[in-house]
């Protein structure tokens, strides 16, 4: 489990108490939270994308804090496939569930409809004055005139989306913590790719740095870091 604090608070003089927590990531070892990933109400739709051999690959409980005044509560527009060294993209899907009403005031998801049919693009840290959270890379060039859809969701509503869909989320202008839970699933028939020489090299470097620190080892491959956190949800574990 990785507990992340908002960069505006982590990099300030404030004592980083629980009010600073922006995300709990990789909760696959926590049974109460991991139960979400195997809920039949969720898995019945996931299966339509992954087929019967279902792995959970990336888990997050996102606790978007009230913005500390630096707009760091925003999540830049990105494609999730940037983070994943496995393919094919069409066998990967995210389930994202609102844990309370989420709208533009507390920073709902924003999506660019139709972009899931495009290609994976170059991602980098956006040049935001107030700083950017660790590994919150943004898609470098996309057509800003493309229509945006703001997803207003009620508590319990779930959206399923493709890893090439360009999406992000807005600033939390309220005093409350905006909570959502999500899991990225992939078919265990997916295969790992070598991201050397691709646009994903920059995120590989960061993930490996974090994994070396977390596991206290001297060497680790990106594939091994992902194999360590993947969990079988249903069916048979094949490649991933
Ligand atoms: C489909 C996937 C989409 C996504 O998931 S996008 C986001 C993915 N983000 C991640 O995976 C981030 C994973 N988390 C992390 O890397 C770590 O938790 C993180 C943020 C570096 C904190 O590391 P820890 O070692 O636990 O904490 P620490 O308090 O000792 O801080 C170490 C240095 O990191 C800094 N830090 C903490 N939170 C940060 C933040 N949110 N953004 C940027 N920098 C941050 C902290 O100030 C410290 O820096 P320094 O060494 O003092 O210069
Ligand atoms: O929950 C959010 O604010 C956005 C999450 C997201 O887009 C992601 O982590 O990939």
Structure write-up:
This is Phytanoyl-CoA dioxygenase, peroxisomal. One of its GO terms (molecular function) is metal ion binding. Its cofactor is Fe cation; L-ascorbate; ATP. InterPro entries: PhyH, Phytyl_CoA_dOase-like. It is a single chain. The protein has 240 residues and is of the alpha+beta class. The chain has five helices and 15 strands. The chain has helices at 7-10, 31-34, 40-50, 201-215, 222-229; strands at 2-5, 21-25, 54-64, 75-78, 86-87, 92-98, 109-111, 123-124, 138-139, 149-151, 158-161, 167-169, 178-187, 191-192, 231-234. The longest helix has 15 residues, at 201-215. It is globular and about 45 Å long. The mean pLDDT is 94. Butyryl Coenzyme A binds at residues 2, 4-5, 7, 10-11, 25, 58, 80, 83, 133-136, 184, 210. 2-oxoglutaric acid binds next to strand 3 and strand 12.
